[in-house]
Amino acid sequence: MNRTIELVKTIYEIKQLEEFHEPQIALAGRSNVGKSSLVNRLAGRKSLAKISSKPGKTRSLNYYRVQPDGFFLVDLPGYGYAKCSKTEREKWGRLIEAYMTANPALKAVVVLLDSRLTPQKLDLELTSYLRGLGIPVIPVLTKADKPKQRERAALQTQWRDILQQLRLPLLFSSKTGMGEEKLWSILAEYADV
Ligand code: GTP
Ligand code: MG
To answer: What backbone phi and psi angles, to 5 degrees, belong to 30?
Structure first.
């Protein structure tokens, strides 16, 4: 299917949150894990979402509409960005919380996990937070072009056990396109389109 992705809304403050009724799937993960690169890969465009080798690039909630399916991908600012101030981190937490809670249009959260790292504290906190809210977690191991096959496979099993899911987390690379088709089918399944 030929899909297009366009940015339709950028939000910095809780008071700007508005109710879209179309299904939404959010993208969450630590700063620099590759969220914006994943959006660009899916969009088939190099610079739809701004990416950076320095963490903390995305500071807003970005709503991307996927056509012709009609659901939204929502790129969230990365968490665990040490260089920003405590006040800013708290503001981030409140914004994400306001977005995630009481949002019936939010069907699932793609949690991006760095395929080169063992499970990190912040990742475990996020996944258990989502579990508590009853929001399905779609785990995606990013930058999968980097580690060796054996290391990737071990991490996949480890995450599957932590998340108590039947499926292994998806291996994804924005660089090579690994996992792209599979991710589209998972997104469509959760968005129910
Ligand atoms: P924040 O906006 O700070 O939260 O970061 P982000 O999660 O949006 O990460 P971003 O997409 O900006 O990518 C961070 C860095 O990782 C950039 O230097 C990317 O080029 C690199 N990167 C992202 N995806 C991949 C990948 O699949 N493979 C490789 N090798 N590098 C990647
Ligand atoms: Mg980003």
So the answer is: -60, 155
